[in-house]
Design brief:
The protein is α/β, with parallel strands linked by helices. It is 63% helix and 10% strand. It has 13 helices and 5 strands. It has helices at 10-19, 22-25, 36-45, 62-71, 87-95, 108-150, 156-169, 178-185, 189-200, 204-222, 227-233, 239-250, 254-259; strands at residues 2-6, 29-33, 50-54, 77-82, 100-103. A 5-stranded parallel beta sheet has the order 2-1-3-4-5, with helices on both faces. Helix 4 (62-71) links the parallel strand 3 and strand 4 (77-82). The longest helix is centred in the middle third of the chain and has 43 residues, at 108-150. It is elongated.
Amino acid sequence: MRLLILDDEVLSVEIMLKKVDWEACGIDEVLVAYHAEGAREILKNSPIDIILCDIEMPGENGIEFMQWARKNGYEMACIFLTCHAKFEYAQEAVRLSSKDYILLPVPYDVITDKVKTVVKELAWQRERERAADIGNKWIREKQEQTKKLYGEARSKAQLAEDVKSYIAKNVSEPKMSVQSIAEYIGLNGDYLGVLFRQETGTTINKYLVETRMEIAAQMLRKGGVSISAVADAVGYENASYFSTSFKKVYGCTPAKYSKE
């Protein structure tokens, strides 16, 4: 990941560069700007994942710079640095979705820990996004298959496909149930369950689990995504319970399946 330090105190920056173990933090490259204009130039030319942003600077301060950055669509994670515990600073830091607010001076291992935490959060977020992308691709393929098969005609068969489509679109929702699906479709839950079973030969709940497991298997085959991220992407808040459900369907754990 790439990190930008924005701080007008040259000596402070030089010491921070030496004292913080950036590699241990998961940072591949550290860039430095000593004023807001310099930081703007860096952002325009280099994607930045995290910014350590000093607040008190002459001219445009750190809060004003981050207001500009957010307004212009820059979404890098921000950790504010300040020597003054002002409530309005903390309040604005929250509004700007900053990850942390460090009151200086602090030991450099505190800064190291803060950066490590943000790196882990970003890595987890990107892992979830990758898992979701794989799942969404699977969903689009299924929807195209359904459209080709049934066209625009509305029938009992199409009703069953509507249920399948809803499940596919909302597979990451852990609280999805027959009742929530029935409310979306506009039918009584028991009646919808009967129609679905008549058409497909299986229950809605069983189909829901099988769909989640099929999408999970697709993600695991692609690789590069942790089991916890896969579990989250298919609606399981508990990775252990997800592993148990997966084994019931595929006869092995997700970890073993991903290696085969």
